[in-house]
Each structure stands twice: as C-alpha cells, then as structure tokens.
Amino acid sequence: MFDEKTLADARQGLKEWEAEVIKIAPDLAAKKRLSTISDLLVNPIYTPEDIRDIDFERDIGYPGSFPFTRGCQATGYRGRVWTFRMFSGLGTAEDTNWRWHQLLKEGETGLSTAFDFPTLMGYDSDSPKARAEVGKCGVAIDTLADFEILTKDIPLHEVTTSMTINPPASVLWAMYLVAAEKQGVGCDRVGGTIQNDMLKEFIAQKTFMCPPEPSIRLISDTIEFGTKNVPRWNTISISGYHIREAGATAVQELAFTLADGIAYIQDVIERKKIDVDAFAPRLSFFFDSHMDFFEEIAKFRAARRMWAKIMRERFQAKNPRSWWLRFHTQTAGCSLTHQQPYNNIVRTATEALAAVLGGTQSLHTNSFDEEYALPTEFAATIALRTQQILAEETGVVNTIDPLAGSYFVESLTSRIEDEAWKYIKQIDDMGGMLAAIDRGFPQREIANAAYRFKQQVDNQEKVVVGVNKYLAEEETPIEILKIDEEVEAEQVKRLKEVKRTRDSRMVSQALCNLRDACRSEANVMPCVIEAVRAYATEQEICDIYREVFGEYRDPGFF
Amino acid sequence: MTFTVRSSGSTATPGSSDSGTTMEPERKLRVLVAKPGLDGHDRGARVIARGFRDAGYEVIYTGVHQTPEQVVSAAIQEDVDLIGLSCLSGAHLHLFSEVVRQLRAAGADDITVIGGGIIPEEDIPRLKEAGIKQVFLPGTPIAEIIDWTRKNMPSDSPSLSTA
Fold first, then answer.
1. Where do you find CATH 3.20.20.240 in chain A?
2. Which of A78, A145, A470, B26 places its Cα 20 to 30 Å from the Cα of A355?
3. Structural domain harbouring B94
4. Does A132 contact B46 at a Cβ distance shorter than 8 Å?
5. Contact, B65 vs A167, CB < 8 A?
6. Assigned domain for B19 exists
C-alpha cells in the first residue's frame, strides 16, 4: 500500500521514536512483554512498515465484495442494524413465552432459545438424569405441547428464532416447524437458525449424545432437508463461541471453527451429492467477543476473509453468497466475574462494541448477573439497552468497518489469519477435523491454553478486576433469579398428561419409521416431523438415535 | 462402566523429605475430579485436575455427564482420598448431596468431598451440612485449593509444591 520512500521514512521514524522512548522512559522501554488476552505479543506502536504486504484491493477492499474483510453487506449497518437477539429461556414454556414477549416489547428484534440441560441432552423431564436440572439453565421442552406454549402469540412469520440445540437439533427444529405450521406459517416462510454443530461439542462444549460419525450424518440430513424445504432457515451455526469459552485463544477459536465448517461442507457434498452453492449460503457462524478489544475486531475481520477464500478457492463455490461468513456474536460469558458483578455491565458493553466494529450480523449481550444464574428481567433489560445505546447513541453504525487501514488492526488481522491457517493446515494433515478430534488435538490445545491463562491470572500477569486486583473488602449481594422447584413437578405432570392423551399407536409407528430411516441412508427429518406431530417426546426420539447410533463417552482429556 | 483418565504429577516425589530411612514410601494422595450432572462446562474441572497433578497428586478425571452413582463407584474403585465435584448448572444441591449420601451408604465416608462451580453463597451452608467439606467459588486461585488440601487432608504427602 506504500511506496519505498514512505516505508523507508517509517523505518527511520520508528528508530527515532524508539531512541526517544529509551531516553525519556528507560523503564518503559525495558518493560516486560505485553500480549493480548490470547497471548499474542503486541508492539507499542505500528507503522506502514507493519502492513507493507497488504494490498488494499486484494486484502481490504469494499464491503459486499470479495474477500469481505469489511463486511458481507455492501450497505453495512446503514442498510440494517444487527439483530438484537437475546439468548433467553427459563423454567417452563409459559415462563419463557412471557419473557420473550417482554423482550420483544422492549425492542428485541430476534428470538434466541436457551433450553435446559435435559432438553439439550435429549432427556425428558421425568428421566432420573433430569433430576434437579429441569428448567434450571433454560426452558424445559419435552413434546410439541410445550413448544406450542413456548411460541404462543409469537408471530413466527415475522420474527426469526435461533435455537441453541445440538444433539437433538432435528427434534426441536421439527417441533418449531410443526408449531409454525399450526400457526399457518409454512416451511417456506419460517426463518431462524438451529445451532446443530456437533464438532464443537466434541471439541469444547461437551453436550454430546451419539459418536461423531453419525452426529455428522444427522447434521447433513438437516442441511439437506433445509436446502430443499425450508429456504429461510440457517440449518447450522458453526460455533467458535463454546471453543473460546472452554479456554481457547482467539486464533484457536477461529481456526477450529473454520475447520469444523470445512468438515461439514465436505460431508454434505460427499454424502448428499448436493452442489455447494445450493446449501452454503445458509451456513451461519457464531463467535465469542472477549475482552481484548482489537484482537476481537481483527478476529472477526480475518474470519470473513478466510471463509471467503475457503469457499471460493477450496470448494470452488461460484455464488458470492456462498462466500459470505455471516455471524452471530455473544459477549464472553467466561469474562464475567462473580466478584463485583456490576462491573460485568462494562465488560459486556466493551465486548459488544468490539463485535459491532467487527461487523456482526446479530448480537447477544450477557447480563451482569449471569455468573450467578439465569438473568433477572432487570439485568436482561440492561443488557438489551447496551445494544440499543451502541446502535443509536454512539454513531458506530454510520461508517462501515471504521478501523480498516489502522496499522495495528490490519496487521493484527493478517497475523491472526496467518496463525489460523497454520492450524487449519495441521488439521488437514491429520485427515480433517474428525480425525483431529479422535486424536484429541483441538481438545488438548484448548486445555493447554485454558491452563496457561489460569496461571497468568493466578500470578497476576493478566488482570481481572475484582478477582486478582482491586478486590472489594465486602461483596454487595445482588438479586438472583431462582427457578421454582415446582417447575420440575409441573413439567412432569404435563408430560404425563400428553402421554395419556396422545394416540400411542401413531407414536409407535412414527418411532418405528424413524428407526428404519436411521438404519438406512434416508433423510431422518420427515420421520422426526411425523413423530413430533404425533407428540412423541424428545427422549423417545433421541432414544432411537442412541439405540441405532450408540452413545459417545467423554475421553476426559485434561 | 466409567471411563477414567489417570495422570500423575511428574514434578513431585512421593514420600517424605526425610529420606534415607527405611520408611516405606508414602502413598500419593489420590484425587478424583468429577462432573456430576448434565452440564458440560468442564473448563474449571480440567484446570483443577491439572493443578492437582502439577502439585504432585495422583489425579483421576472421569469426564462430563457422570451420575452420582458413577462418581461414587469410580471413587471406590480408584481408592481415592479426595473428590472434587464441579457443577455449573444449578443442580449442585441435589448432585453434591447425593454423592455424599451414596458414599456413606457404601461405607466410604472416609473420602473427603469438596466442590466448586456456579454456586450461590446462600447454598454453601446447606452444602456443608450435607457433608461437602469446602466450596470454592469462581476465581479461586489454584494455589488456594492446594493449600486447603494440604492443611485438611491428613495423609497429604506431596512434598514439592507449585507455590
């Protein structure tokens, strides 16, 4: 981007600046290494020299144009502000439906469902494994009956819904489709996202049910079904969020997520023989926004640029929409502190700003009390207001990718990209992400990074305010949301009632058909929809998966 | 059947520091790190497991999604002295208490149980009443947990520390 004279001047200028710094602040010049939260070393100053290899047209360019460093949409946030999508779910379907209506009334623009652990793991509320977990970390869903209550009076033709659901993604998606159909909204009109990303579960989040191979097959089934029948649905949200939360660095988050994406695309192409351009535009992504402000912005920019190259060069996609990396962001849950919880509001705002400057399409902001429990309505409203303040008061939406051209940000973007390519190459050399997971490679890389960070915090090399510096003599207690223990009993009662009143022959037939589909190469989705419509429970369906595909056991790396 | 991964510290020497006697080498204190329940948030559990290992303990980690029965059976099978439970889903009162209850029922109440995770302060007295010896909240330095173990585990023997 610069001619030789500018570069030579920059080198000379930097030398002079360094000499000056040594003179006026010898201590500062000798200061210990400074690094990002992911431990990438950073310099005190960046100059044209640091981005000498960057070509404006090739590497930065314009929003809406390859390689999309500056954004997928040509119009940025001027065309449309990101979706305010608050991850929300608690107690029973009634409780969550009420919270959803509140959030929509307060200006939320998209829904996002948090399910409780039994639902996430494919167990009904009356399973012994569900004891004390029902409705605790999200909403409890056992059958379509719960789902109908969950979506009551929510206009499913207008609002899009994201569902954080993985092993039983096909089941909850089927419930959504049938609930929408009962509202008169057909498959061609509903919009939303299922997370449906199992590779990151084996790598990081550990919500798993069946082994990796059949898990991938179920995902390819949903992608195929969506491509043919539910055109406005994102059938997967390839997620770095949980990888990061498990302790990964920014580079690992980016690299492992893109490597997961590569594995999914390969499987759909090979198993389903679908043209990449037919399904790739509906792939979506989900990243973490952590505390290191510039590192996060650089990560988001690098992610778009890398994915565009992967899609165009590796998979030969022709449709520009296949080149787009569209992503949702959540501020970093793991950056929230138990200590002095109100400080979390500031952390979340900073992380949200990084996500916005990185060009996210959709955003969840954590509530300050989420280190304790699910958020109270008060805390959730502040989190939503944080997004509204950023969107409507700060002016950051007016100019697209405003940090482009910054010596530091461009240099960091390229650096993160280079480091992430190295990981992707390593994973390719192992035979792809499935083989890498089998070896425990990403799991161990993350465990190492998590342990290193913990040591850095314990020895105060990294500061966490209120935890290892500026400790409060006494903590001020905050109000915490409690899930009524009655929820479990209520939920079990409703489940019994559904089982009593449904046509059990229809259920058995549907489950039989599903078993056959699982054993064949047929797409399971039509059978799952049939089972859900007959009010088969989530666990009844998942038990078929477990029976046919087996269960995965945590190898317990540490 | 529980899948276990075992790993022992490489830096510590088992046995007391007054070597040269005919004393039998002391047995390393054995720690089971376990995640009962359905939540998969194992970052803390894995970090603690490694912290114990680096401090010279014999560590067994049984992975996520363990039932209380599985935790107890692994603890007995592996003859551990200490169990560290981790739960971030809010089901700690039930799960932790159930582990202690089943240990007692199995006559293994000599095993000390400690816990950590997302645990409201007001639940700590109830957990202690149920037999959980100590509860560590988010942000606790590893050294603090190791120190607690040294002070409270009578047969604690690792002689080299990370501190």
1. 57-458
2. A470
3. 28-152
4. no
5. no
6. no
pLDDT digits (tens, 9 = 90+) for B86-139: 999 999 999 999 999 999 999 999 999 999 999 999 999 999 999 999 999 999
> Is residue B94 included in any domain, yes or no?
yes
What CATH number did the domain enclosing B144 receive?
3.40.50.280
In chain B, what are the helix, strand and coil shares in percent, each to the nearest 5?
35, 20, 45
Q: For residues A198-214, give the mean pLDDT.
A: 97
Residue B121 falls inside a structural domain: yes
Structure tokens at A440: 């425990």
Contact A556 B5 (CB under 8 A): yes
Task: For residue A425, give every residue at least 6 positions away whose Cβ sits within 8 Å of its Cβ, in sequence order, or none.
Answer: none
Split into its structural domains, chain B has a count of 1
- pLDDT per residue as tens digits for the range A510-553: 999 999 999 999 999 999 999 999 999 999 999 999 999 999 99
State percent of chain B over pLDDT 90.
Answer: 75
Q: Say if residues A263 and A433 touch (Cβ distance below 8 Å).
A: yes
Flag whether the pTM goes above 0.90: yes
Distance from CA of B126 to the nearest CA of A (A): 15
Give the residue, B158 or A335, on which the prediction is more confident: A335
Token pair recorded at residue B44: 């803390």
Q: ipTM of this predicted complex?
A: 0.91
Subunit contact A129:B38, Cβ cutoff 8 A: yes
Min distance B135 CA to chain A CA atoms (Å):
14
Q: A57-458 in CATH: which number?
A: 3.20.20.240
**Residue A357, both tokens:** 């400057």
